[in-house]
Amino acid sequence: MHARLLTTIAVALLSACSPGNGSSAPADSQAADLTAGAAVTDGRPFVVSELARFDKPWAMAFLPGDGRLLVTEMNGTLKLLEPGGKSIDVSGVPEVDAGGQGGLGDVVAHPDFARNKLVYLSYAEAGDHDTRGAAVARAKLVVDNQGGARLADLKVLWRQVPKVQGRGHFGHRIAFGPDGHLWISSGERQKFDPAQDMQSNLGKIVRLNADGSVPADNPFADQGGVAAQVWSLGHRNPLGIAFNAKGELWEVEMGPKGGDELNRIERGANYGYPIVSNGDHYDGRPIPDHDTQPQFSAPAISWTPVISPSDMIFYSGDKFPAWQGDALISGLSSNALVRVVFDDQGAHEAERFDMGARIREVEQGPDGDIYLLEDGPKGRLLRLAPPAA
């Protein structure tokens, strides 16, 4: 997507995303002020522009090369935003079990999307006896000549095992690695012990081939079953996974009462939850810290008070050259965008920007600007761009 197309989206979406097409429109006066270019406040090195609003948005994905943006809403709606500003509801989305922290979740494009038009979705699906679990499906995005869009040939590639009761800690972020493997973060579903149970893929980071099959070189492949999917274990609610320029996988997850974590993900490593954590249980019961049991991998950073991380990227664009190689983490309870830097001494929080609302996702646009999705009803799609010279 070129900068010109993204600028077109920035202006046109303000009128395109209205109650008539399933999204709530921003107030006209606010939209006009934002698109004109908000003043830089509190020393922030960016201008914030509002592009659209959605009903409980969860994720977004820029489609390579064609100037379009996919946005998921937790209620099960998938939006396709055209370069001219038109908003299309994409049909053929799998049935989701929406409620609590569950619903339609992540969306990513296949690395070869320009040729195969494949997109990947995560979502909560219902099971028997009031149970549910996350799933990941693949489908072809078809846009017809009449302006409609649908998902075709949808196939479920992965499911959380087992399905359990409750509506929390699905995780289910998706990423493609530099070698084309499919990575999925799987929360422990607020059940604690499954994070250490290799008969379950809850509380794990999962590595698959792009078609959902299990790579033969996974660390636990010889155990078979769901254990063969697992790359790392001992996670609570991993809500951000991203690769840096070196090809290293990093993950950010919500801790319990304290102890949010940023981890470098290593092959076969155990990150200790719920045996160790730098936070405690919500009922006040203590959990031993990581440094009491060094056989478990300790986080590069832990946060107490928590930031409630929801997503992360590594910035590689030209618009914010001082941030190249840094991690940007979106925060829910912290209402923040958190910048993390890396050096010979490890990882360190460098800056925290108060965004005034819970932030559900952060993405880098093809233009090098930074895009945020706010959490909740009328959640805004925001663009962060450098101030005009």
TrEMBL record:
Upper classification of the source organism reads: Bacteria, Pseudomonadati, Pseudomonadota, Gammaproteobacteria, Lysobacterales
Look up and give the organism this protein is from.
Lysobacter concretionis Ko07 = DSM 16239
Domain (Glucose/Sorbosone dehydrogenase) spans: 54-383
Q: What is this protein called?
A: Glucose dehydrogenase
Coiled-coil annotation reads none
Q: Which InterPro entries match?
A: 6-blade_b-propeller_TolB-like (IPR011042), Glc/Sorbosone_DH (IPR012938), Quinoprot_gluc/sorb_DH_b-prop (IPR011041)
Superkingdom is Bacteria
PROSITE patterns in the record: PROKAR_LIPOPROTEIN
